[in-house]
Design a protein that fits this description.
The protein is α+β, with helices and mostly antiparallel strands and 196 residues long. 18% of the residues lie in helices and 23% in strands. The protein has helices at 13-16, 35-40, 44-55, 109-121; strands at 6-11, 22-28, 60-65, 123-125, 140-142, 145-147, 150-155, 162-167, 180-184.
């Protein structure tokens, strides 16, 4: 199920004590106005959606540079459109918390498509609504400005597994993107060492 646009990693249910296998998809969306995108006519949302459809209805997380500037467009059809992060919420589920974003860049076409894609595929954007990144930290820093374009998306059935999302400090000598670290809670079973 992997190709150069999407790498699929399976977390085996037995090993990780999950109710079913979980899949993590890593992807890169070329910039929407790049010569590659213009020349090939590639639709990264269609490619990612196709990979997800081939997996079927399973727990999924998507991570990668989506080159989508979506600011705070709701990804949840039931969103109130207000910031609820300061309220006491009995169930601290990202489904009921509107997301934040420090990105003040204008919304691009991918940014308008991303929330629609998320609604269609039952995904939630974890940036800006998860422990460790409740403010929607900027993930890409270039001479012309900074933006949030590296995302973690989670299907509804994996939301409870996401422990945290942290946008690491920017290291200009390494990349113009910050590393985005996501911690998920699973109970892995490690094989016992053979006894003598």
């Amino acid at each position: 199920l992997s190709n150069h646009e999407v790498v699929v990693v399976r977390l085996h249910a037995t090993f990780f004590h999950l109710t079913q296998d979980m899949y993590i998809l890593y992807t890169y969306f070329p910039p929407e106005n790049s010569t590659y995108t213009q020349r090939t006519g590639v639709d990264p949302f269609a490619i990612l959606g196709d990979r997800m459809d081939k997996l079927g209805r399973v727990p999924i997380m998507v991570m990668g540079d989506l080159n989508a500037r979506s600011k705070r467009i709701p990804d949840n059809p039931h969103s109130t459109g207000t910031n609820q992060l300061g309220l006491e919420i009995e169930d601290d589920c990202p489904d009921v918390i509107d997301r934040e974003s420090l990105d003040d860049k204008s919304i691009n076409d991918y940014g308008r498509q991303l929330p629609i894609f998320c609604q269609d595929k039952d995904l939630r954007i974890m940036n800006g609504r998860t422990r460790g990144d409740s403010w929607g930290a900027l993930t890409c820093h270039r001479p012309r400005g900074s933006s949030l374009i590296d995302y973690v998306l989670a299907s509804h059935d994996t939301l409870s597994l996401v422990e945290s999302l942290v946008v690491e400090n920017f290291r200009s000598l390494v990349s113009d993107h910050c590393r985005v670290t996501t911690t998920i809670t699973v109970n892995a079973t490690y094989p016992s060492a053979p006894t003598r």
